[in-house]
């Protein structure tokens, strides 16, 4: 169902991605296997505390809430605009078509070339094949 409507749902759903990432970050702290769980929790709490304190201290309540909503929506759309070009037009592999890990990463994503400005704007995520092959590499 979503596949048929994805062109229409793409941007509306991206507006929710900023909120989703924050919720996912908090939920991931419940994972006891994280090596730096305490540090992650402290830094995440500090981020929320500083961001929300500054926001609600500097702006009137209504404007702060509006800013928060617009900021998170645009954050989600921006992230979607970073990831989407690397996967558009690439094959979707299902069931028996799924090759090994290496081929799957190379066949279903692409690198975006555009020069220095593209590298800066996309923060290195234009090298999507390398990102998929080595996700923990800085």
Give descriptors for this structure.
mainly alpha, 138 residues, 7 helices
- From N to C, what is the helix and strand string? HHHHHHH
Strand content: under 5%
Shape: globular
Task: Report the C-alpha radius of gyration, rounded.
Answer: 18 Å
Largest sheet, strands/sense/barrel: none
Low-confidence stretches: none
Total DSSP helices: 7
Write a short abstract of this structure:
Helix content is 65%, strand content 0%. By secondary structure, it is mainly alpha-helical.
Protein described:
There is one protein chain. The longest helix is centred in the middle third of the chain and has 23 residues. It contains 7 helices and no strands. It is globular and about 55 Å long. Helices cover 65% and strands 0% of the residues. With 138 residues, the chain is mostly helical. The model has no long low-confidence stretch (mean pLDDT 87). The relative contact order is 0.10. The chain folds into 2 domains: 84 residues, no CATH class; 52 residues, no CATH class. It holds the Pfam family FA_desaturase. This is Delta fatty acid desaturase. GO terms for molecular function: oxidoreductase activity, acting on paired donors, with oxidation of a pair of donors resulting in the reduction of molecular oxygen to two molecules of water. InterPro entries: FA_desaturase_dom, Fatty_acid_desaturase. Keywords: Membrane, Transmembrane, Transmembrane helix.
């Amino acid at each position: 169902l979503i596949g048929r409507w994805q062109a229409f749902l793409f941007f509306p759903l991206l507006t929710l991605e900023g909120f989703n990432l924050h919720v996912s970050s908090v939920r991931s702290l419940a994972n006891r296997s994280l090596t730096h769980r305490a540090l992650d929790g402290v830094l995440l709490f500090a981020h929320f505390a500083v961001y929300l304190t500054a926001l609600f201290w500097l702006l009137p309540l209504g404007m702060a809430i509006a800013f928060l909503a617009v900021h998170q929506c645009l954050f989600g759309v921006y992230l979607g605009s970073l990831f989407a070009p690397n996967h558009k037009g690439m094959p979707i592999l299902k069931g028996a078509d799924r090759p090994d890990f290496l081929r799957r990463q190379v066949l279903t994503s692409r690198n975006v070339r555009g020069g220095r400005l593209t590298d800066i704007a996309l923060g290195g995520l234009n090298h999507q094949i390398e990102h998929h092959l080595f996700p923990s590499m800085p």
